[in-house]
Fold:
Amino acid sequence: MSMALSLDLRRRGVAAVDEDGLTHRQAAERVKVSAASVSRWRAWAREKGDPRPAPPGGDRRTHVIEAQPAAILEVFEARRDMRLEELRAELAGRGRSFRIRHIVAVPPPSRLDA
Structure:
């Protein structure tokens, strides 16, 4: 797995655009990265005040499913013998599109009662 580039490098790339007036491409050549990286760093600096990298990896979809377990369980309870692919298709028909591996992450009913 690759490592994030240093915060110092990111700050120099952002400063090359913001303070020196370079284009993203010119700033990228200066710090030896892609123009897309400079663009992404500037966006993070605007949004968060710092071009610090986000933590690596992580789950980006489970929170979407966990926000609507009642709807998923409602479909499942209507026909408990359905396969995961059938459940996924039924949910897609109701405007909820998930991959099977995300559906498996639905919390058990005991967590819904809490």
About this structure: Helices lie at 7-18, 24-31, 35-48, 62-66, 69-78, 84-93, 100-103, 109-112.
